[in-house]
Amino acid sequence: MVSNGWSEGLSGGWHTNGQRRVAKYYRASASHGRRLKWNADRSKLSEAQIVDGKLEETFRRWQPNGTLAEDLEMQAGQSGGVSRACFPSGCLSAEARLRQGKVVEQRFWEDRERRGASGGA
Question: Is 37 contained in some domain?
Fold first, then answer.
């Protein structure tokens, strides 16, 4: 919807097969609120919280098989905190600590060496 020349409210997009592709919100023409994306088969692709056009909180993306692919802590549009990436098996492949978008520490694992993004063994 447009209000006073600004994009406002819910906006969406669809895949060519008619399935929803994206749902996001706008405030004063800036992306603002929860943004969800789906694959054409209806499985969730990603989830993010956006504040005044910048990613905040935790960004998550899923593998086509439904397991978590990555989660990344965001602050004012920059990565900060802990970032994790997973193999399609769901096991951790990498973990990094970031500060203002720069890697300050990182570790890597082989598939099935370390389970899940929660860090459990």
Answer: yes
